[in-house]
Amino acid sequence: MIVQKYKEMLGAKSVIRTLSEAATVRAGQIGRQNVFDYSLGNPSVPVPSCFKEAVISLLEEEDPMTVHGYSPTLGIPSVKEAIARSLNERFGMNYGPEHIFPTSAAAAAIAHALRAVSVPGDEVLTFAPYFPEYQPYVDLTGAVLKVVPADTTSFQINFEAFEQMIHEKTAAVLVNTPNNPSGAVYTEETLRRLADVLLKKQAEYGHDIFLISDEPYREIVFDGKKQPYVSKFYANTISCYSFSKALSLPGDRIGYLAVNPACPDAATIVNMCGQISRGIGHNCPATLMQLAVSRVLDQTADFSIYEKNRNLLYDCLTDIGFDVVKPAGTFYIFPKALEEDAIAFCQKALAYDLVLVPADTFGCPGYFRMAYCVDTEKVERSLPVLVKFAKEVYGR
């Protein structure tokens, strides 16, 4: 008998992927250049040349077994050492290789983190708006995801609601900053207050509460600012990182899990991840990718294109009259729809070949997401279409 749970999931496909597929079909009809597809967060800026050079060097100069053989279950020691050293230099931490576990990007890191610190029946809290895939990530561990309502004035944490929802069954809190879909960057004040609440609740309940930090957009921050490093504020933090966005490598599936060295169980958690891998079939990421990224850890793609796209869209949307908080990072913008039903709003936008994602599954009904990791030229051509749509359908 096939498993009913996964069969039921077939009827709940990702809204983002569904819209992206529809955009591809439409592009086949009228040309890709005529479809303004803001659905999928697929990095569009070029991969930095240093990464390409690192891969070529490894393939041409290293022994084939070095780059194509199995890596150790817990990751390649030299890679773990390089990641720890980079984090220490950049963020003033004290990681060792024993605190690092290479993974197939951030999704795999989250999968391991959740299984390391929660058991079926536990609760995991996250903050709206949130990445919809958190739901299956948590559900399939047997834990229960609880969503704290959004503070839509700033998309920082709604602490009043959070303190009402956290309780003895809370095993972990899952945060994402810079945030998909809002583009918000949690401030140092927000992170300190979050840490204070968690410390107080750990003492009250007599058990650890882990902070799982989903960080694929950590480097994509605008206006000359930086994302405060989440682990600096709370000992029981597990950072889940991906090079997909920083280096424009989403298809190469490479990242890592880093357990704060101040966590008493840090090294044990990393060792546990090797055993978790046995159960979920992860079995370490590609050797070539581990070695390649270890040579370019402090490099990034050119994010100035994303910042320019943000400015173009923010200015246009505010001129039209949309209620929108200016993103501080990522490559997403998160306006409030021009009617209460964001699903209906996005359906109407499709008639103008504007592919927008309603935010109901992000935990924010009435809002929509635009992923502006597209060519600036296309963003510029989409602006009069946005204006026309708002004017003809909503009288704006």
Blueprint (SSEs and pairs):
Elements: H1 4-9, H2 15-30, E1 36-37, H3 49-61, H4 64-68, H5 77-91, E2 100-103, H6 105-117, E3 123-127, H7 134-139, E4 144-148, H8 159-165, E5 170-176, H9 188-205, E6 210-214, E7 237-242, E8 255-259, H10 266-280, H11 287-294, H12 304-320, E9 332-333, H13 342-350, E10 354-355, E11 357-358, E12 368-371, H14 376-394
Parallel strand pairs: 1-10, 3-4, 3-5, 5-6, 6-7
Antiparallel strand pairs: 2-8, 7-8, 9-12, 11-12
Helix pairs in contact: 3-11, 5-11, 6-10, 12-14
Descriptive notes:
With 396 residues, the chain is of the alpha/beta class. The protein folds into two domains: 4-47 and 302-394, Alpha-Beta Complex (Aspartate Aminotransferase, domain 1); 49-294, Type I PLP-dependent aspartate aminotransferase-like (Major domain) (Aspartate Aminotransferase, domain 2). Helix content is 42%, strand content 12%. The protein contains 14 helices and twelve strands. It has a seven-stranded mixed sheet, sandwiched between helices. Helix 3 packs across helix 11, helix 5 packs parallel to helix 11 and helix 12 packs parallel to helix 14. It is globular.
